Amino acid sequence: MQTTLETLGQLERRLHVAVPIEQIEGEVRKRLANLAKTVKIAGFRPGKVPLKMIAQQYGPRVRSDVISDTVQTTFNDAIREQNLRVAGYPRIEPKQAATTDQFEFSAVFEVYPEVKLGDLSSVKITRPVAQVTAADVDNTLEILRKQQIRYETVSRPAERGDRAIVDFTGRIDGVEFPGGKAHDFAITLGEGRMLPEFDLALTGMSAGESKTFSLTFPSDYHGKDVAGKIAEFDLLMKSISVGRLPSVDEAFAKQYGIASGSVDELRAEIAENLSLELKRKVETVLKNQVLRALREHAQLVVPKSLVELEAANLLDRARAELKRRGDDAADANLTAEIFRPQAEERVAIGLILNEIVRVHNLQAKPEQVRSLVAEGAQSYEQPDAVIRWHYEKPERLNEFEFAAVERNVIDWTLSRAQVTDQATSFSAMMDPVSA
Predict the structure, then answer these.
(1) Which of 117, 260, 359, 391 lies deepest, with the highest CB count within 10 Å?
(2) Hey, how many other C-beta atoms are within 10 angstroms of the C-beta on 347?
(3) H helical segments located in 37-104
(4) pLDDT, tens digit, for every residue of 297-332?
């Protein structure tokens, strides 16, 4: 085998490979001879079919397979000899051999780039510091209570906070419009899901009462067809009910898995779950800052082939998600090009992380992986069974191994950056917009 390497660009290479024809023909003869031992052809006993007949019938396919295997094998051998790290898949180009005793081809491919990481000492990272308080537990209990709300029908006129079941039909210039009609529609007065005019019209109505009222849709209303227009609604109040929240007592605690019915145990479990949620949120905030800093301080050329592969993967995931939701992916006009910027960032970050892990020996340790698996298993009723399940097959640990490596890189970066603690609250971390 003879090889010649040509540099086409910063990362692109072309490898010329020449293989003796006799090597290929020898392999073809060997495979045909093996095939002759087992092939069945009418009129001949197995193993007695003339080799010439085998060659006529199976020769082209066998030769094609041999050439394909030869290209793959010789390419792999050549890149090992040249000490090349191939990014993506090579593009094989057949060549006209200079002599009849040679089979030649070229492979065009990209190599992995050199990653240069700058000085991280000037990087500023803000680390949120928060604690789960009794008020946070109270808020969570209130959410759980609302999930168990029971409605009781009342005979009085509707008030704020009541749930009304209504029929309504809306018209603009006397014509019904899409989305303007509903039957047995539930509206909680004062909740803010409907336009204020609806709440005003419903307030004071009794079950069985009808009303017609007008409203003007806001000019910035999400429904463009009705935005800024005046609509007239026919409204029928069908029933009014008031919500009753359960007490936080023994029965309530048992509903949420506390066998003893102890409210204190329930509060402690909620606090533990909120603390874990807070920990993960803080880690995400730090991770985003770290990845952004690493990307800004790294110099590398991103291989186009890896970007194309990642864009294709993102496209496939988007289509699968649309299909899962029942949407038609064809109507979304999705193309790989849409995901190219995101793909480039993901590939770049991946290359940077891999280089840091390789140079600084930040591979995942077994005890780290075990800790992450155990942490994730705590949200299940039988954590030990979940842990055993993950360790039954190595591939089930991939996600946790990657998470461990990611944490190692984050810790490594934080040890070199300027980290400032910033006091905050659980609610601000979980819902920064509302806070």
Answers:
(1) 117
(2) 22
(3) 51-82
(4) 999 999 999 999 999 999 999 888 888 887 765 556
**C-alpha torsion angle, residues 38, 44, 50, 53 (rounded to 10):** -90
Per-chain mean pLDDT for the chain: 91
Q: Distance between CA atoms of 57 and 258, rounded to whole angstroms?
A: 74
How many CA atoms lie less than 13 Å away from 391 in the CB half-sphere?
15
Is residue 16 a contact partner of residue 95, using CB atoms and an 8 Å limit?
yes
Beta bridge partners of 129: 423
Which phi and psi (to 5°) does residue 132 adopt?
-80, 125
Q: Of all helices (H) and strands (E), which one includes residue 298?
A: strand 298-299
CATH classification of 150-244, choosing from 3.10.50.40, 3.40.190.10, 3.40.50.2000, 3.40.50.2300? 3.10.50.40
Indicate the CATH number for domain 2-111. Answer: 3.30.70.1050
- Residue in 134, 8, 88 with CA at minimum distance from that of residue 311: 88
Per-position DSSP letters for 337-391, written without gaps between them: GGGHHHHHHHHHHHHHHHHHHHHHT-PPPHHHHHHHHHHHHTTSS-HHHHHHHHH
Q: Where are the beta strands (DSSP E) in 72-149?
A: 86-94, 102-111, 116-117, 124-129
Do residues 253 and 266 lie in contact, with contact meaning Cβ atoms separated by under 8 Å?
yes
Residue identified by tokens 């204020």 is: 196
What is the tens place of the pLDDT at every residue in 126-184? 999 999 999 999 999 999 999 999 999 999 999 999 999 999 999 999 999 988 999 99
Domain-wise residue ranges, the chain = 2-111, 124-134+274-430, 150-244
Q: Could you tell me the two tokens for 297?
A: 């301080």
pTM above 0.90, yes or no: no
Query: Are 315 and 308 a contacting pair, CB within 8 Å?
Result: no
CATH of domain 124-134+274-430: 1.10.3120.10
51 versus 141: the higher-pLDDT residue is 141
**Where in 142-229 does DSSP place strands (E)?**
150-153, 163-172, 175-188, 210-216
DSSP per-residue string spanning 8-42: -SSSEEEEEEEEEHHHHHHHHHHHHHHHHTT---T
Sequence-distant (6+) residues with CB within 8 A of 243 are 149, 150, 151, 161, 163
Ramachandran sector of residue 311 (left: φ over 0; alpha: ψ -120 to 50; beta: rest): alpha
